[in-house]
Amino acid sequence: MDVRPLDDCPPFVTKDGSEIRELLAYRNSEIRNQSLAEARLPVGAATDEHYHARTEEIYYITHGLGRIRIDGETRDVSAGDAIAIPPGRRHKLWNTGSEVLRLLCCCAPTYEHADTIITEP
User: Which CATH number fits domain 16-118: 3.20.20.140, 1.10.530.10, 2.160.10.10, 2.60.120.10?
Assistant: First the structure.
């Protein structure tokens, strides 16, 4: 049985600049076809705009306020919002609130640096 406490998952920085803690993926569990991570963006921070050639993502905001842009459409988001990001869609996330923006990121197939294409300098 795989049970991973968030505090036992070491953080690392993804290619788009967000800090994540990978809860479950092939790298640390029996899971093979998807991954689940918690991402954190400090106040005033943003990810680099990017897309994933193969991976679809679901973001689920757990704490804070933000703004997301997907293929040119921008929307405010907050705790309780789920965001669908199909493969190939350029996306960028900003923390617009006064606390750390925290979200769960579900990726299928699993997150890989090599599948992240940065689209801004």
Answer: 2.60.120.10
